[in-house]
């Protein structure tokens, strides 16, 4: 069976993507656990592209991909966006809710951008999921999951949705695009 390599330092991301692979394809996913060097940019696709370029200098496995993701809050002009990982580690969820204390428009979206290297080509797959920032921090979930309520549910946070998150999320939709591309490409070659 074909194998594809995913470079990430984030176990949650890997588990989510691995579950999607297991449910939707016979292509196997292998983890390369490594912190990724990211350029400064407002554009997640550009960050993913350059992270992949850097990774492929160190790792020669193919096909290989990285995923860059972030939470973009409308009333904060897209903040934390490309700085999501840093902001999570510094001001955290409480800090975000404090910034949003007097904000009534709580619309936001999550974005996932996957950059894949296959042969000598780089392909980018991006998806977004709209939702709202909650007023409270729910108990379950990782990263921003406890404060993001997806539009398609409207009540529960990603954290509260448990495994259901992984059938509606930004990462799920982008990973499905990746799988469709890989299947077309890898099975056509055999
Ligand atoms: P990599 O090694 O793959 O880069 P990372 O954790 O640094 O892992 P990102 O640079 O893509 O990942 O940063 C995205 C941050 O956004 C991540 O640390 C989380 O805090 C948050 N995030 C992204 N997707 C999320 C999701 O589905 N649920 C909750 N938080 C998420």
Describe this structure in words.
The chain has 190 residues and is an alpha/beta fold. It has a single domain (3-189), classed as Alpha-Beta Complex (Maf protein), CATH 3.90.950. The protein has 6 helices and 6 strands. The protein has a 6-stranded mixed β-sheet with strand order 2-1-3-4-5-6. Strand 1, helix 1 (11-24) and strand 2 (28-33) form a beta-alpha-beta unit. The termini are close together. 35% of the residues are buried. The structure holds inosine 5'-triphosphate.
Number of helices: 6
- Return the domain count: 1
Helical content (DSSP H or I, runs of 4+): 25-40%
CATH architecture: Alpha-Beta Complex
Task: Name the average pLDDT.
Answer: 96
Order of helices and strands: EHEHEHHEEEHH
Which small molecules are bound?
A: inosine 5'-triphosphate
**Termini Cα gap:** 10 Å
Major sheet size, sense and barrel closure: 6 strands, mixed
Highlighted features:
six-stranded mixed beta sheet, binds inosine 5'-triphosphate, Maf protein, 6 helices, 190 residues, single chain, alpha/beta
Question: Summary?
Answer:
With 190 residues, the protein is an alpha/beta fold. It has 6 helices and 6 strands, in the order E-H-E-H-E-H-H-E-E-E-H-H.
Give the topology, please.
Blueprint: E1 3-8, H1 11-24, E2 28-33, H2 44-58, E3 64-73, H3 84-90, H4 92-99, E4 107-118, E5 121-133, E6 148-150, H5 158-161, H6 170-189
Parallel strand pairs: 1-2, 1-3
Antiparallel strand pairs: 3-4, 4-5, 5-6
Helix pairs in contact: 1-6
The chain binds inosine 5'-triphosphate (ITT).
